Amino acid sequence: YPSELLMQKITEDNQIPVHLHVSVSLQYVAGLKGRALVEFFHSNIAEVENEELRHLMWSSVLFYKTPSVEVMACVLLSTKAIYFLLDDSFIHADEHQSDFWNKENSDCENSSFHLSCCFVLKLNDLQSVNVGLFDQYFRITGHSADHIVTCLTRDSYNTHTFIQQLMAVLSLLARTPSPEPVDKDFYSEFGSKNTGKMENYELIHSSRVKFIYPNEEEIGDLAFLVAEKMDGLTNLPSLNILLYVLAFQVNHFEGSAQNTSSLQPKTLILTSSDLFLFDEDYISYPLPEFAKEPPKRDKYQLADGRRIRDLDRVLMGYQTYPQALTFVFDDVQNQDLMQNLTLDHFGE
Predict the structure, then answer these.
(1) Of 31, 25, 81, whose CA–CA distance to 52 is shortest?
(2) Which fold has domain 216-329?
């Protein structure tokens, strides 16, 4: 340890997404290669001497205690824990949550050091991993509200790779075996399914950590919700969700010293007739076991919705990933004018 293959893989993965800005301290980490990166992990991050770094990933993260603050992090998976090396701007982003972080180093702010917070989730404390729709994100749950983190990879490949590495590392943990399952007869096995609602797919790992995947009903629920937002203009059985993707909406600020743009996280949903942008709660659902009350906001909140028939043109940028798309709509004052005229003219 470390093997040449591992060092090469970690070096390749150590790249900050180009569209996201990070602090100087994380830029320093992103500049490390190969053995220097492994040595940095052991001298600055690792908690015990014999743990091995297995995987590195850059991702936006959300914490259960601060659901409105999305922050960039370098996620490091070792044989003992998952480490989230956080952008130092996060400490000042949400003042009322300051008790969540111990600000012992606040007197160092004016020095030449660049400090980062490191949030540690030990693998022994891990209880479940919820994978989001179409592998766009995943939520890691520990034993309390302080130990719930969502990684917004916005990339099914990164999600899949991390889950595979996490399963491999969990296999090394020595945990007491689960009690043997009691053999059920045919009637008790199928007779208990009287709720009419299918449970999410659960894979219980040998380390007793649950990996929970969404089922088809989540798409059905989402289609029903989308149809509600469309005020019943569309026939629900014919409504198909063609695309679900976590994206950013670009808000451009002109007239400032330099024309700047901010990226607002949005969930984009495309149906056969409409294009929707939702504000989605990626951290609160499904409810953790210790939650006393439901979250303050719904899982999906409609931010914008337009009919495809009003789409005039789509402008595509020439840059590489991530691709920028501009949708230009013909905005009719009364959106339903055309539809109502058609109905009146052609029959009941």
Answers:
(1) 81
(2) PH-domain like (2.30.29)
